[in-house]
Amino acid sequence: MIALNSEHSENLRTAAAALSAGSEAESLLRALNWRYAVKRFDPARAIDAGTWNALEEALVLTASGIGLQPWKFLVIDDPAVRARLREASYGQPQIVEADKLVVFAARTGYSAADVDRFIARVAEVRGQSLESLAGLRNAALSVVQRPEAERNAWAARQPYIALGNFLTSAALLGVDACPMEGFEPAKYNEILGLNEQGYTAVVVAAAGYRSPEDRFGGLAKVRFPRDTVLTHV
Partners of 106 in the beta sheet? Predict the structure, then answer.
């Protein structure tokens, strides 16, 4: 056997890493090109438990402003509740046909108590004292010091970060999804009791597997040319 010198070994590792990175990049782009906002789901096909657990964890791991996570994700399993939500979604079939339905809700009236809950969690997870986290707490309180309308607008933007993460994660796992804003938030809040919990529905995502009857499934993806939407400065 021929012994490899350290430089040759490093070159091989670099080449292997480059090949792996190229393969992963191609896999990502394939998944994103395959993904589309499904209009009709196959109600007979279910997402396996392991895959769905990974997608729930992807939601939990989503980035947020200052890490504050001013949201709640509701997975609607009850068929009766789904039927009521469909009525509040202009009759869209994805609400009941998809295997899973997630309602993304934002915290309303975000307060210093919410900040302190977050700081306590940081201290617990990282084994730090509350005193050592004073700087982080002060940064987080900058959100609370805004007028309530600004706080609510900030909080309402955060679930969209989670939605994007969810859609990409689903595509990478071969799961179809559809983001949905076509619903009546006030009725969702009433049906799900969100106002009483200090939240409001912002956006919805249905997930499962596309139906062969979805006539939009085979259409080419339409996007503006890259050089018209992306600029290097």
Answer: 71, 200
d(CA 106, CA 96): 23
Residue 65 burial (CB < 10 Å; 0-12/13-18/19+)?
middle
Q: What is the DSSP letter of 37?
A: B
Q: What is the mean pLDDT of the chain?
A: 94
Instruction: Answer for the pair 79, 96: CB distance below 8 angstroms, yes or no.
Output: yes
152 Cα distance to chain centroid: 19
- Residue 22 pLDDT: 73
Full-model pTM: 0.89
Distance CA 171, CA 132 (A): 40
CATH number of 43-211: 3.40.109.10
Q: Are strands 71-75 and 176-180 parallel, antiparallel or unpaired?
A: unpaired
Segment (H or E) for 114: helix 112-126
SS3 149: helix
One-letter identity of residue 168: T
